[in-house]
Amino acid sequence: MRSIRRGASGVAAALVVAGLVAGCSGGSTAAAPAADPNAKVSISVVSLKPGSEKAAFDAFDKQVAQFEAANPNIDVTPREYEWTGPTFTAQLAGGTLPTVFTVPFTDGKSLVERGQLADITDPMKAFGYLDKFNKAVLAAGQGPDGHIYGVPTAAYCIGLQYNRALFTQAGLDPDKPPATWDEVRADAKIIAAKTGQAGYAQMTSENTGGWMLTSLTSALGGRMQVVNGAKTEATVDNPGAKAALQLLHQMRWDDNAMGANFLYAWGTINQDFAAGKIGMYMGGSDVYTSLYQQNGMKPEDYGLAVLPLGTGGEAGLLGGGTLAAVNVKATPNEQAAAAKWIDFYYMSKFTKQDAAVLDAKTLADSKQPVGVPQLPIFDKATLTQYDGWIKQYVNVPLAQMTSFTNGIFSQALAGEPAAHTQEMYAALDPVVQAVLTDRNANIDTLLKQADTDVQAILDRS
Q1: Which CATH number is 7-156+319-403's, of 3.40.190.10, 3.30.1490.190, 3.30.450.20, 1.10.3720.10?
Q2: Domain locations in the chain?
Q3: Is the pLDDT of residue 288 over 70?
Q4: What is the value of pTM for the model shown?
Q5: Please, which residues have CB within 8 angstroms of residue 208's CB and are 6 or more apart in sequence?
Q6: CB 299 within 8 A of CB 397
Q7: Given this model, what pLDDT does residue 442 score?
């Protein structure tokens, strides 16, 4: 997510999530390197996150076998993979990324600008569905030339994850998750008092502290960056961010509702949530799959609600998504084979009924999640059609996610900050940690210094 975009490209990035529920785009006219479609080739592809259950890997291996049967000249080697800012940077620098890898939306433009993603425009055009993409979503993987360097495979927005078992133990109604931040605070306090577990927890490390602070700030009406002409300006020191930190301070120090771990990252907070140690936390609306595969989340304990929004006119849900990309160091034949894998594994299920059914049946037969709520990467008609194709195989507890699925399309959406996103998030981690570990932390001073630090990062563009 380390973007170096400014000006018009920054504005485009801010529209990515705002455009998730509207619009389609046409195809690109770029030319990709020539390749021999019949050449024998071997590629490596990202599979699942380390620690996923064996059944999930078995299902993935079945899909690899299905692909290889349809493409006998292509040999696929799966590699476990989990994107984090620090590890991805090291893999990129060390040349150890697989042929096909995934990155967040906000990484796309900067990787393109640095020439670190392969141009896969021609093979993607040949698959015949570029005109179905949501235009704003497709833009996340396009370069200034309109060529395609990353293919959107999933989109999400931040939701409120809640543990129904802890709600029940605390005497709360798990079918009525909190709808305001005052209710979140009240429920968190009750859960902590009656169960001895953290009523609410917050990610704070490995860039996730800044990510979640930005998410909460957006929900309360603030923005961490603004584009002013050709310059991106830091606006970290804003009323929404101050309100977000004050809320966290109150839940931590006044309510004693946040437990004892204040160095959570994405993986560790998911682990404790699935283990019944956390009542609520903010996370991507698509996280159920990882919770189930990696952390053994009991389906009956899982709940997903829309994130409460403040009353300000700019209040919105932060969102983003995932791009599938091809290693620029791959040969033309490897790049062409990689594009075929992207089409098979990520995309064809949305556009071809037989592919949708095969994918859903393979996962369902292995007892893997099918039907996790998602935002549309294609137009809404395509998503509706896909939902119909897989309906009989859906096995996730959708009835426990109705607050989210019924409410998401009436909520305002906000894109992630466009410039130097991960660097900004890293700079904000210590701010969140300070508020949760020091009762006397001065929020005004922290925000003022963070604003200066982030502006210095932005000025490097």
Answers
A1: 3.40.190.10
A2: 7-156+319-403, 157-315+410-458
A3: yes
A4: 0.78
A5: 264, 265, 266, 269, 425, 429
A6: yes
A7: 98
